[in-house]
TrEMBL record:
Keywords: Elongation factor, Protein biosynthesis
InterPro entries in alphabetical order: eEF-1beta-like_sf (IPR036219), EF1B_bsu/dsu_GNE (IPR014038), Transl_elong_EF1B/ribsomal_bS6 (IPR014717), Transl_elong_EF1B_B_arc (IPR004542)
Gene name, Swiss-Prot/TrEMBL: ef1b
Domain Translation elongation factor EF1B beta/delta subunit guanine nucleotide exchange residue range list: 3-85
Protein name stated in the entry: Elongation factor 1-beta
Role noted for this protein: Promotes the exchange of GDP for GTP in EF-1-alpha/GDP, thus allowing the regeneration of EF-1-alpha/GTP that could then be used to form the ternary complex EF-1-alpha/GTP/AAtRNA.
Molecular-function GO term, any one: translation elongation factor activity
Signal sequence annotation: none
Family named by the database record: Belongs to the EF-1-beta/EF-1-delta family.
One Pfam family named in its UniProt record: EF1_GNE
Length: 85
């Protein structure tokens, strides 16, 4: 079994969500995330985009989305890209 790199976008609930605190919470829940960046969406809303390395076993990406979705201030988490490492 190998690993895959997952590029994800995390949408906050509103522009008022503190992105620094949200990034800190993401790093606490997912200590292996890398390349965390803010991405402007529009109307003052910014998303957080990052990469994570996970096993390519079935269900790993679903668990990643569920873990992120449970963090306060997160509207949704979506996978942008999955690639072999």
């Amino acid at each position: 079994m190998g690993s895959v790199a997952v590029i994800m976008r995390v949408m906050p609930e509103s522009p008022e969500v503190n992105l620094d605190e949200l990034k800190k919470a993401l790093k606490e829940k997912l200590p292996g995330i890398q390349d965390v960046k803010e991405e402007p969406i529009g109307f003052g809303l910014k998303a957080i985009k990052f990469a994570a390395i996970v096993n390519d076993a079935g269900g790993e990406t679903d668990m990643l989305e569920k873990t992120i979705g449970a963090i306060p201030g997160v509207e949704r988490a979506e996978i942008i890209e999955v690639t072999l490492t």
